[in-house]
Design brief:
Blueprint (H helix, E strand, L loop, with lengths): L8 E4 L5 E4 L6 H4 L5 H9 L2 E4 L6 H10 L8 H4 L2 H21 L2 H5 L4 H9 L7 H9 L3 H5 L6 H11 L3 E4 L3 H9 L7
Parallel strand pairs: 3-4
Antiparallel strand pairs: 1-2
GO biological process, one term: Wnt signaling pathway
Subcellular location: Cell membrane; Membrane
Keywords: Cell membrane, Glycoprotein, Hydrolase, Membrane, Metal-binding, Metalloprotease, Protease, Signal, Transmembrane, Transmembrane helix, Wnt signaling pathway
Amino acid sequence: QQSELNSFLWTIKRDPPSYFFGTIHVPYTRVWDFIPENSKKAFQQSHIVYFELDLTDPYTISALTSCQLLPQGKNLQDVLPHDIYRRLKQHLEYVKLMMPSWMTPDQRGKGLYADYLFNAIAGNWERKRPVWVMLMVNSLTEVDIKSRGVPVLDLYLAQEAERLRKQTGAVEKVEEQCHPLNGLNFSQV
């Protein structure tokens, strides 16, 4: 029942009201039917929408990509223990081999190819910092691959906000997310 769902929506009582909605980074199709109507209505009625990051801004995407890289001249092989690096490389070879069987007919119909998708997700993995490789590996599962091409909830809402000509913004800069993750030491990762 819609009325029984936890909306993750907080209302700041002012005129007009402000709302705070907690999202998660999963394909929106996995959660959209479970988002209560009060949350969807608040989004529809809002004229200004702020997101964690502006995922529609090319600079944001470029900065996110750059911050994931090891310092110039360093490779993952230089910073990971040999055994972990070898196991990681074998796992990525396995994923690349399996990816064609993980893809849906709908994805193939939209022109997505396994090699392209693998390179889009894992390309340049040997230059990435360990924390970002860990996050990448966690997203290289059959379930996640089958949902590639479907925007995560944050991006879907940002695209909807643009489509509805709402004013948008971001509450964080890429650096505010990147630096803490890049500051983790190897044992923390």
